[in-house]
Amino acid sequence: MEGRICSVSNAKQLFRSNRFILLLLLITFSTYVGFYVEYHSRSSHKGYNEAFLGREGVRKQDDRVDKTVSEENNHTLPKQVDRVDKAVSEENNHTQRVIPIENSPVVLSGKDLMRGLRRNSTSYGLIMGPFDSTEDRILEKRPTGGCDKNGEFARVVRGRKFVVVMHELTMTGAPISMMELATELLSCEATVSVVVLNTMGGLMPELERRKIKVVEDKEIASFKAAVEADLVIPGSCVCASWIEQYRAHFPGSQSENIAWWIMENRRGYYEMSKHVLNRVKMLIFLLEPQSKEWLAWAAEDNINLDSQEISVAPLSVNDELAFVAGISSSSDSNSSSSGPEVLPDKRMELREAVREEMGLKDSDVVVMCLGSINPGKGQLLFLESAKMVVEEELPREANIREVMSESERVPQEQTLKILIGSLWSRSNYQREYVEAMVRIIYEHPNLSKSVLWTPTTTRVAALYSAADVYITNTQATVGETFGRVTIEAMAFGLPVLGTDAGGTADIVDHNKTGLLHPLGPEGNQALAKNLRFLLENPSVRKEMGVRGREKVEKMYLKRHMLEKLADAMSRCMTTI
């Protein structure tokens, strides 16, 4: 009996001992997991330059987007973005937060980061706006647009029938420009129908408000409407498939009535469009360099475009924004009695009201970028540059460079504030990329104090009024095709910081209307230096802004665009 009792006692001791060992093993394992998650979270953060920003990564992103535009239309996410936070794969499985041993921020999953952003916490950057009600209260009456009845555009289009083809309805440059073209045609007594290839986006209510007829069927019904029109105007390379089907449905010469307004500059868009380039009557480009590049590509592929009319018509600042900016436009005579000459006080009132809503001080310098948020637009690179400024990582130079004239130092310290839009935009929205942006903000408290977000909207006058500098950091391998937001910002007297490529380099005069920097990570420090320079030199900001505004008044108002389009349409319809 004693032996049995002893045996039982030994067993209990062994069990307690094993349980203690098991507990030690569990503690050791959890500590290892903590180190593992912390390490990989940091390594993933360190490596997002490779995932999103590296030269090769940018090139692959560009090639992937260009190879098939259906990725953008169907919102399929490039494989490239899967590399971000790959080491912390548990984020999709609701892993618990792990507190690192060092005094670094809590490591959060991607889902936690997005939840934090939606909670509107300062740790992730505050969401501000939209400011529609503030605009309406202060500006009251604004021009509704209108036709210059005596202008050449009205003479060309009056009584004619047009079909405008929109590839999508997102609140971005091309769709908004095509909607405004349809509005202008309608106001000049033309008959207009719109074909929408992808209803993604929020412009349908605006089309309805403007009483623009939308063809319900984007196939047979749209083909019939097109063949009966005097002119069909597709507004993107993404319309290539529709053009091909339309020409196949009506193979005769009557379906050649197409003036294709091409708004892209990347080689991949050319590749998916080239088979129908010589099946339209006219090709319209946004800029001369873009036109020359496309024609050179066609020559390389032995595509004969001798029968096609070629024209260039840049985008423009619309009447409403020009009015708020205080610039006289072609339709001012048809608007309310409040002209541009009485708007300076209203603009200042709008600026002060919006900045007050944002919680800004007079010493805060707002650097703003608007557009769809994805690697091609370079917002993550911009945040890297901003981090260098707010955390004072840049070396101090002995002499401040002279850009246009000597600039006095600011007596009051200027604080950098960053306004990023368009949050929740449906145009090529990439959640993983937004998560990477939120992560860098969260992990750098000094940066998080500087960042503001704003949702996607068509009402941007309040945003431009509140800003001090505009940045267009478009990447890929060729930069922005045109950049309508660039000329809008210039209309409001904002100097522009932009990549030295594509349409940005054509529109922004370096050292005169803004400052340019190289593409890719190589441009990070240059952008940071340009940011700091404008931050510290308000007189230079003002002088650049004035020159940019003057350039818009000379080249990028609605009347300039309509003059070009009137000439193009007239030539096109004359030869049909």
Automatic annotation (TrEMBL):
<dbReference type="Pfam" id="PF00534">
    <property type="entry name" value="Glycos_transf_1"/>
</dbReference>
<feature type="transmembrane region" description="Helical">
    <location>
        <begin position="20"/>
        <end position="37"/>
    </location>
</feature>
<keyword id="KW-0328">Glycosyltransferase</keyword>
<keyword id="KW-0808">Transferase</keyword>
<keyword id="KW-1133">Transmembrane helix</keyword>
<dbReference type="InterPro" id="IPR001296">
    <property type="entry name" value="Glyco_trans_1"/>
</dbReference>
<dbReference type="InterPro" id="IPR041693">
    <property type="entry name" value="Glyco_trans_4_5"/>
</dbReference>
<keyword id="KW-0812">Transmembrane</keyword>
<dbReference type="Pfam" id="PF16994">
    <property type="entry name" value="Glyco_trans_4_5"/>
</dbReference>
<feature type="domain" description="Glycosyl transferase family 1">
    <location>
        <begin position="352"/>
        <end position="550"/>
    </location>
</feature>
<protein>
    <recommendedName>
        <fullName>Glycosyl transferase family 1 domain-containing protein</fullName>
    </recommendedName>
</protein>
<keyword id="KW-0472">Membrane</keyword>
<dbReference type="GO" id="GO:0016757">
    <property type="term" value="F:glycosyltransferase activity"/>
</dbReference>
